[in-house]
Amino acid sequence: VFEDHFYAARPIRQTQTSYSVRSLTLQTPTSVQLTLHQKDHRHFRNKDYAYSWARLILAKKDFDGYRYIASLYANDKVLGLEERLEEGEYFIVVLMEWKGRAYELGLGCQAAWPVLVDRPKTEDYKDIISDLS
Fold first, then answer.
1. Which end of the chain, C or N, has fewer beta carbons within 10 A?
2. Strands (E), the chain
């Protein structure tokens, strides 16, 4: 975490068969660091606890759909993605392969300028998975 940067965090709660989408609006080009945080073993009684596989996808809203920017796929406590982004509207897609019940995640966003991370309306992203496939 950079002391001179702005940081926003949002909780995400999913069911086993769903995905989550958050929007990110930039008014100024800037470098953005996105982090996805899974709870660690201290929150669970199971001694064999392992992190679930997670996919973090960043896409930009274009005039004819969505443009893929970057993604990560890992089963770590924290997934981190850093990109230099132009101004505009972006979407962050979180897909989890849960190892049992679904649990809450944390999505963090850090940038040199204030950014708005929000939960978009469903109609704003209803085709995002098929457009990015």
1. C
2. 6-13, 19-26, 30-38, 53-62, 65-74, 78-85, 88-97, 104-111, 116-118
Would you say the pTM of this structure is higher than 0.90? no
| 52-56 long-range Cβ contacts below 8 angstroms, 24+ apart | 52/96, 52/97, 52/98, 52/99, 53/96, 53/97, 54/79, 54/94, 54/95, 54/96, 54/97, 54/105, 55/93, 55/94, 55/95, 55/96, 56/81, 56/92, 56/93, 56/94
Higher pLDDT pick, 130 / 73: 73
Residue holding tokens 């606890």?
A: 49
- The pLDDT of residue 100 is 65
Residue written as tokens 């098929």?
130
Q: 78-82, 86-90, 124-128: which has the minimum mean pLDDT?
A: 124-128
Place of tokens 């990109």: 83
DSSP conformation class of 122? G
Report the SS3 class of residue 103: coil
Least confident of 24-33, 90-99, 123-132: 123-132
